[in-house]
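Please predict the structure of the following assembly.
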Amino acid sequence: GEDVEQSLFLSVREGDSSVINCTYTDSSSTYLYWYKQEPGAGLQLLTYIFSNMDMKQDQRLTVLLNKKDKHLSLRIADTQTGDSAIYFCAERPFSGGYNKLIFGAGTRLAVHP
Amino acid sequence: DVKVTQSSRYLVKRTGEKVFLECVQDMDHENMFWYRQDPGLGLRLIYFSYDVKMKEKGDIPEGYSVSREKKERFSLILESASTNQTSMYLCASRPVGTGGTDTQYFGPGTRLTVL
């Protein structure tokens, strides 16, 4: 079946790196995504990675994909208080076509001084 | 900028009431989605629509229906609201044409409380 798992909470000190982890079950997934939800807002796409890539870097964000272990991570360098939010991992399984995304439960990132 | 708006940010209804949640997008997207978001469960797809008057059930359609009479508007209907439908409801839209890189654009959400 299709399932995406994330830890629910992460607390980091301002200026440190944050690493949010995600595991998924569908090995046919074509794209994997990280969405951010700030308080009182909808989700916004942060970044995505195609399944034939191992790593993607975008400014302070680094996405690592271990396809063998079905493990995805999001690293935020120099974490700031504005990074406090809920981060959702999502996969697009091949069988779902382009319309289906499977979301994890979300990781709440708290950044403290 | 793509804009997805939802008719209410907060809504309080009574058990048994008929509830309409409205969503409007301004980017001529073909696909629109309704999710509910619950703590510890993430987002679960209720229904999606890939064109006017076209709809498909998502993972948890029971107790809900939808309507898409115009391309820009997608409505979620709770025929007889129940307390277990208390949740945050998120609408999203998505264009078609460029495969899996197409992102979904989300509205701000409607927090519905059913008493």
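Residues 31 and 50 of chain B are 4 Å apart (CA to CA). Chain B has no helices and eleven strands.
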